[in-house]
């Protein structure tokens, strides 16, 4: 399904975290989701089903549940992030093939996530990948205005001072690729779906490690 792309101009390799650098185990994601529901329910004095609806609505409208909670309810982000990301990471298993593939990439490697700084460091460290990255750009760095908001991408490019037309972005949330493409990045959608890519998707794969290895082999 992937097109053959010319990657010879790529200098900066940008990766989303959740569902991109690992395939989310259902129980791991459910844990975070349930903790969000519990936090919202407690802090806004809502029944769990009402809290869940709000959580989904804000995720859809803002790109991250927290951004809606801050905008509409003035919620303090730090206690929310600490609480929801305090989950059992033992279900995440390191992928040696992915480590090898990322380590071989020529150029800068950066994580670009709507999760928190603590979350990406914990997860990447648990996956045995953290040392391969120059750094990350998290929701705190986006001033809580996450992907797919254009400002998040602009702040990211500015902070790491790279040329987006010489960057490639790997991401499982398809809508997050649109702005990246508009800024000139090459885009790869990480998905198990066998679906025709949209205009702003350059390639599709369900196997990030294999795709990277293939791309490097092709030169
Ligand atoms: Mg993701």
Structure report:
- This protein has about 220 residues and is of the alpha/beta class.
- It has two domains: about 10-20 and about 90-219, 3-Layer(aba) Sandwich (Rossmann fold), CATH 3.40.50.1000; about 25-85, DNA polymerase, domain 1 (Orthogonal Bundle), CATH 1.10.150.
- The protein has nine helices and six strands; from the N terminus they run E-H-H-H-H-H-E-H-E-H-E-H-E-E-H.
- It has helices spanning about 25-45, 50-60, 65-75, 75-85, 95-105, 115-125, 150-160, 175-180, 210-219; strands spanning about 10-15, 110, 135, 165-170, 185-190, 205.
- A six-stranded parallel beta sheet has the order 3-2-1-4-5-6.
- Helix 1 packs across helix 2 (about 50-60).
- The chain is globular, with a radius of gyration of 17 Å.
- The model has no long low-confidence stretch (mean pLDDT about 90).
- The structure holds magnesium ion.
- Magnesium ion (MG) binds near residues 16, 19 and 172.
Radius of gyration: 17 Å
Number of beta-strand segments: 6
What are the distinct ligands in this entry? magnesium ion
Arrangement of strands in the largest sheet: 3-2-1-4-5-6
Order of helices and strands: EHHHHHEHEHEHEEH
Q: And the CATH topology of the largest domain?
A: Rossmann fold
Give the uncertain stretches in residue-range form.
none
CATH superfamily membership of the largest domain, which one?
A: HAD superfamily/HAD-like
Percent strand: 5-15%
CATH class categorisation of the largest domain: Alpha Beta
Largest β sheet strand count, sense and barrel closure: 6 strands, parallel
3D shape: globular
Structural class: alpha/beta
The total number of structural domains is 2
In quaternary terms, these chains amount to: single chain
Distance between the termini: 19 Å
Helix content: 40-55%
CATH architecture classification of the largest domain: 3-Layer(aba) Sandwich
> If helices are DSSP runs of H or I spanning 4 or more residues, what is the number of helices?
9
Q: Overall mean pLDDT score? A: 92
């Amino acid at each position: 399904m992937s097109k053959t792309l010319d990657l010879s101009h790529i200098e900066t390799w940008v990766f989303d975290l959740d569902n991109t650098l690992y395939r989310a185990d259902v129980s791991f994601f459910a844990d975070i989701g349930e903790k969000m529901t519990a936090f919202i329910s407690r802090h806004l004095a809502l029944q769990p089903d009402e809290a869940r609806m709000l959580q989904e609505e804000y995720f859809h409208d803002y790109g991250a549940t927290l951004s809606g909670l801050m905008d509409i309810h003035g919620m303090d982000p730090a206690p929310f992030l600490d609480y929801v990301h305090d989950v059992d990471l033992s279900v995440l298993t390191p992928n040696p093939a992915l480590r090898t593939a990322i380590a071989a990439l020529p150029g800068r490697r950066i994580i670009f996530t709507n999760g928190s700084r603590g979350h990406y460091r914990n997860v990447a460290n648990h996956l045995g990948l953290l040392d391969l990255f120059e750094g990350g750009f998290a929701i705190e760095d986006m001033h809580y205005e996450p992907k797919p908001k254009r400002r998040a991408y602009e702040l990211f490019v500015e902070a790491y001072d790279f040329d987006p037309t010489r960057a490639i972005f790997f991401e499982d949330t398809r809508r997050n690729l649109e702005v990246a493409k508009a800024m000139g990045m090459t885009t790869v959608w990480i998905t198990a779906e066998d679906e025709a890519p949209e205009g702003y998707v350059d390639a599709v794969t369900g196997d990030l490690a294999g795709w990277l290895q293939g791309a490097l082999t092709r030169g």
